[in-house]
Amino acid sequence: MSTDRAAPDRTGDPAATSTGLRIVPRRHFGRWLATALILLALAGIIRAFAVGQIEWSIVAQFLTARSIMNGLLNTIVMAVVAMALGIGLGVLFAVMVMSSNPVLRASANGYIWFFRGTPLILQLLLWFNLALVFPTLGIPGLFEFRTVDVITPFMATLLGLGINQGAYTAEVVRAGILSVDQGQTEAAQAIGMARPTILRRIVLPQAMRVIIPPVGNEFISMVKLTSLASVIQFSEILRNAQTIYFANGRVIELLIVAAIWYIIVVSILSIGQFFLELRFSRGYATGRR
Amino acid sequence: MSNSPSSLVKGRGITKIFGAHRALDSVDLDVSRGEVLCIIGPSGSGKSTLLRCLNQIEKPNSGMIRIDGDLAGYRQKGEVLFELDDRAIARQRLACGMVFQRFNLFHHMTALQNIMEGPVTVLRRRKEEVRKGALKLLDRVGLSEKAGAYPAQLSGGQQQRVAIARALAMQPKLMLFDEPTSALDPELVGEVLNVMRDLAAIGMTMIVVTHELGFAREVADRVIFMDAGRIVETGTPEELLSRPSEQRTKDFIAAVLS
User: What does the alpha-carbon distance between residue A273 and residue A278 come to, in Å, rounded to a whole number?
Assistant: First the structure.
């Protein structure tokens, strides 16, 4: 931290040159004090962990254990497919909410109202226990499945996370669509485009600029929300870590293992989000000439 | 209903109501092939609404519009009119090219992509052939070196010229200009008017809503003065701009020139 950054340019400063007096730069005592306090606190935390009862060798041993790796893979796969379902539903329901058809509008609003209004963990439990309500699924006379065969922990988690995500993404997409100037639609109409083409070619690509940052955030949330699925026996990373510590008693070490992986995945996603935002700000990044 | 072969646009009793406001009050309009018609009038007089009705961006509450014989928004079968769907209306819009006050270039596309979008996506023509035509159009509006520039990198005048090229790429029968120079800095107005002058010279049918009385005087075949949703007066530029017969027209021209 350099203190002379704030010092006036002595050669160019007319006051200094005309008076010939020496200038003492302003001192930043507060900055130094804050730095010292933070370093002290950091040292304290590092020491606490070093002498605390954590077997770091066990953390290292389980960091790449087979079960943890499988859990990590399940977490990533689930986050991706649930988010894909969420975005698909989000776009669909955003368009329905903005439709001029009152039936479409009301049903989309109802969907958003219900899935935003109940806790996610409750929705996961409902999906997982669907068999209690509907023992079989299908169209009578055509095909029928036993619900317990269809609603596996994977399916229940996918439906729970994806449908819940759709309700939030719908609002984000709607805000994105509203952010695009009406003139863009009129210009597209003027060159003879029909509504669906205007949405696909003109409005959505521009709405992306507004949609990507919050959806990126939600994707990062989604990675962590998959951990809720541990309550319905989906073997994502947290559940697998728990299974191990129920056996060996190394609770903190295995929680640290899971934390490390979450942080790594989220960090990679943040970098990806940066580049995606760059791509969709095409035509905006450069200033007006 | 018969159409004289020279009449490209025929409007009868066009009325548009927004809430309690009568934006257009039973307007009749005839535009011949190759004619340049300028519409002047105070803001809120219904000039822009008239253009937007011609292009079916607004749907008139009553009245009828024929463009090149086609009834706008309807299909006639005997004595019955069937309302057209979105896709068929989009097809009818191909007859008119439209240029907007605020340019409305597609921000996420380069100048060249803006011009190519319609022919490729709507007319489904081959990309390579469209590119050639688009580059020619860019050259015609004097912007061949700006093909790869995004709208945000162009000045207002350049954006408007790209917007004109984008409309021309659809090979419309008629060009509608909605105050094309009103959002421009004064020194950029000339370059856009020059492009429009060239278009008029090659016989394009044009309806221009404008405050540029000099342009109207020089290029227009006929000038219409509108006020409060009605056509107050119509005539040659010389008649209407130099010897207006209505008091409202006189007041407006005096106010614009002062």
Answer: 9
